[in-house]
Specification:
This protein is of the alpha+beta class. It is built from four helices and nine strands; from the N terminus they run E-H-H-E-E-E-E-H-E-E-E-H-E. The protein has a five-stranded mixed β-sheet. The protein has a four-stranded antiparallel β-sheet with strand order 1-2-3-4, with helices on one face. Strand 2 and strand 3 form a beta hairpin. The chain starts with 7 loop residues before the first strand and ends in a 7-residue tail after the last strand.
Length: 173
């Protein structure tokens, strides 16, 4: 039986700067080996580029809202997953708000799935009384779409009822 499509899915791959650095490293490696042998230098550069691209893909976390093993929707951020029934308010964070959340506003107990090249994100409050984690801070290039998928996946009533908001300033603490 085919799995239902995720409501939201994104792999946080490096941006143009990261891919350019991988290509530049492979070229420099090839140029360094050119005096030894031209075939060796080209093949080494190609192998290095393939390995770097594979490593970038393999180490890039996936952020998704999709059905879990039991059919209930879950938020996945990297290796961590949580049922959407345990999620509260979702706040969309622009660059400035994300920087603030990662700096002076960061709670050390929070789960953070961060990639520097994805400069926006969401803050998702947790409402599970058994979980000491107060919220998740997740990098994404499409925070509004992720917040909408979370809002659509949340139960309509109960402690995990989710609503999406946009960060309009520092949160009171």
């Amino acid at each position: 039986m085919p799995q239902p499509a995720p409501a939201y899915s994104e792999r946080l791959l490096p941006g143009p700067g990261g891919w350019s650095a991988a290509v530049a490293f492979a070229v420099i490696l090839g140029v360094a080996l050119w005096p030894v042998d031209d075939v060796l230098s080209i093949s080494t550069a190609v192998v290095a580029l393939v390995v770097l691209v594979a490593l970038a893909w393999w180490t890039s976390p996936v952020v998704s809202v999709s059905p879990g093993p039991d059919g209930a929707r879950v938020l996945r951020a990297g290796r961590a997953t949580i049922p959407t029934s345990f999620l509260g308010t979702t706040t969309v964070l622009d660059r400035a708000a994300m920087t603030r959340e990662l700096g002076p506003s960061l709670d050390a107990r929070a789960y953070v799935c961060l990639r520097a090249w994805a400069r926006t994100g969401v803050r998702v409050e947790l409402v599970d009384p058994a979980d000491p984690t107060p919220y998740w801070l997740v990098s994404t290039r499409h925070p509004a779409e992720l917040a909408a998928a979370l809002a659509a996946s949340a139960p309509a009533t109960g402690p995990g009822a989710s609503g999406a908001t946009t960060d309009a300033g520092p949160s009171p603490r």
